[in-house]
Amino acid sequence: MVEEKENVASGNTAAGQETVSKKGAKKLAKAAKKAEQKAETAAAIAADDATGDKAVDHAAARYGLSEMIQSKDKRSEREFLLVPELSKHVDKGLFWVRGRVHTTRAKGKQCFLVLRQQSSTVQCILAVGDVISKQMIKFAGNIPKESIIDIQAKPIAVPIKIESCTEQFVELSVEQLFVISQAKPQLPLQIEDAARPENPDDAEGLNIRVNQDTRLDNRVLDLRTPANQAIFRLEAGVCRLFRDILTDKGFTEIHTPKIISAASEGGANVFTVSYFKESAYLAQSPQLYKQMAIAADFDKVFTVGAVFRAEDSNTHRHLTEFVGLDLEMAFKYHYHEVLHTIGNTFTAIFKGLRDNYSREIEAVGQQYKVDAFKFLEPPLILQFSEGVAMLREAGVETGDEEDLSTPNEKLLGRLVKAKYDTDFYILDKFPLAIRPFYTMPDPNNPIYSNSYDMFMRGEEILSGAQRIHDPEYLMERAKHHGIDTTKIAAYIESFRYGCPPHAGGGIGMERVVMLYLGLDNIRKTSMFPRDPKRLTP
Ligand code: ATP
Q1: Which of 363, 370, 405, 361 is nearest to 387 (CA)?
Q2: Measured between alpha carbons, how far is 529 from 524 in angstroms, rounded to an integer?
């Protein structure tokens, strides 16, 4: 081996004439070989044409079903590109791309395949020639939609804009194609149908629509639409912003138990689970535990986690399991210190979504009607009694101590929008009678309490209040509500060792996303929704 190398090296240092003639000979041999290969390919194609699929397949090694990837080798030499990166690699050689077959159509000696990666699509071309055989075209045209494939291809510029793909100025000239995971040929729903815009022009429903149950029954397919990809990325954004903004404000993230011994909010809407020889409940909120964290000197806390409600509410905005974004904070003298912190947190979330998630908002807007979300800085704060007065002015009869019904809540949202031009507002000082036992009464008016709700597009997304931190007063209020205080002894006990005044709130994550985007159903913003009629998938 070493000797051979030395010979080559000495050859290179030989006289110029000799080197040139050697090179020339090599070139000639190479050209002859190429011509021979070309002739062979032409003959093979001619034979393919003559005898159909049974003929020798000159591309046989370049396509097929891949063996199951079981991590046998690493193939780290393969450079994979993402679809949005392709335009930067035009005319730079061959690259691998993995994606789904969005559509494929073989026609004569060509196959047009659209490859999809999440929400990005690119057109791929296979044409019979030196590299591609007729059989390969047939194979590519028959791959079931949604199958995952690896292709090796050259990114090339296209002269005419491709309207139907997200990559409009580049296409892939495929040289190798392997199916990595094959989809069933019959899909329970077509991605194109599930992604079709809810177009008011199509009032007669001429276009195929996919109904909600079919979508949810086949959620894994439904989630592949661009709008759904965007919804759940934006939802991740809401959680990330909530975490980042509160962490910046000095809050600590905590985790509270979901299996609890007593209903945190009182009432009967709890799921019972068997707990060894006893029964336990699924937490309706982290309420008692986040307050106990305040009593334990954490000062400002938040938590993101599952919340369970055994309510047989079959509405557009109730789930039996949702994600709660909860926070609790000690304050010095007035619960408005907390109210303003929460209000400002929302403003920062709305700004973060507007500034960093515009692509997602636009993608949802391609399918659903999305009006830009409007908010004021600082947020609008109205008194509950002012809200009631606005409703009465609009002809609604509602009592001073009555909770807002859903239609009244929505109407008030419209009135507020018309008067103040905001989709977000805070209603402060709710009647005491309609709030949980741990809510601090208003010191100035016994019918009200130091509690508030926050609304987006006229629907409640947060409920919060100053909590009673005095154990005797808390006992009194719990008894007034008919609560068995022996069951919450540990909670009440935690205020006997000194606890700062504090307030907080609970937010429904899915509602925030639904209402931010102006969607009509909370099931659209829950990846695998749970409601009284749905426990699967
Ligand atoms: P609603 O009056 O709409 O039923 P609630 O008064 O029961 O709500 P809270 O118990 O105060 O709500 O919960 C705080 C927040 O949690 C609500 O503002 C809402 O955003 C969310 N939320 C409450 N219940 C549900 C539910 N069943 N499904 C989804 N989100 C919910």
Answers
A1: 405
A2: 8
Q: Report the pLDDT value the prediction gives residue 351, as an integer from 0 to 100.
A: 98
Token digits for 49?
């044409």
Q: What is the pLDDT of residues 100-154, one digit of tens each?
A: 999 999 999 999 999 999 999 999 999 999 999 999 999 999 999 999 999 999 9
CB distance 463 to ligand 1 below 6 Å: yes
Does residue 309 line the site of ligand 1, with CB under 6 A? yes
Across all residues in the chain, what is the average pLDDT? 91
18 pLDDT band, cuts 50/70/90, is very low
Tens digits of per-residue pLDDT, 445-473? 999 999 999 999 999 999 999 999 999 99
Mutate to test the pocket of ligand 1, among 303, 308, 309 (most ligand atoms within 8 A of CB): 309
Which residue's alpha carbon is nearest to atom 12 within ligand 1?
463
Q: Which of 460, 507, 512 to mutate to test the pocket of ligand 1 (most atoms within 8 A of CB)?
A: 460
pLDDT at position 355, please?
A: 98
What phi, psi does 434 have (nearest 5°)? Answer: -105, 10
Query: What residue ranges define each of the domains in the chain, with the CATH number in brackets?
Result: 61-181 (2.40.50.140), 226-525 (3.30.930.10)
DSSP for 464-531, written as a single string: EEEBP--HHHHHHHHHHTT--GGGGHHHHHTTTT----EEEEEEEHHHHHHHHHT-S-GGGGSSS--B
- Order of strands, edge to edge, in the sheet holding 300-308? 252-253, 300-308, 321-330, 502-508, 459-466, 451-456, 424-428, 380-383
CB of 505 shorter than 6 A to ligand 1:
no
Closest Cα to residue 193, out of 234, 221, 231, 163?
A: 221
Question: Which of 314, 317, 527 is the best mutation target for the ligand 1 pocket, counting ligand atoms within 8 Å of the beta carbon and taking the most?
Answer: 317
The answer to whether residue 86 scores a pLDDT higher than 80 is yes
Residues with a catalytic annotation lie at 309, 311, 317-318, 460, 463, 511
In whole angstroms, give the CA distance from residue 453 to residue 459: 10
Q: Which amino acid makes up residue 468?
A: I
User: With a 6 A CB cut-off, is 462 part of the ligand 1 pocket?
Assistant: yes
Q: Ligand 1 within 6 A of 323 CB?
A: no
Residue-wise pLDDT tens digits, 30-56: 666 666 655 555 555 555 555 555 679
Closest ligand 1 atom to Cα of 454: 18
Task: Express as a percent the part of the chain with pLDDT over 90.
Answer: 83
- Rounded to the nearest angstrom, the distance between the alpha carbon of 461 and the centre of ligand 1 is 7
Decide: 307 and 283 in contact? Cβ < 8 Å: yes
pLDDT tens-digit readout, 55-66: 799 999 999 999
Per cent of the chain over pLDDT 70 is 88
- CA-to-CA distance for 325 and 307, rounded, in angstroms? 10
Q: Is the CB of 410 under 6 A from ligand 1?
A: no
- Report the distance separating Cα 226 and Cα 368, nearest Å: 11
In ligand 1, which atom is closest to the CA atom of 511?
Answer: 20
pLDDT at position 68 is 96
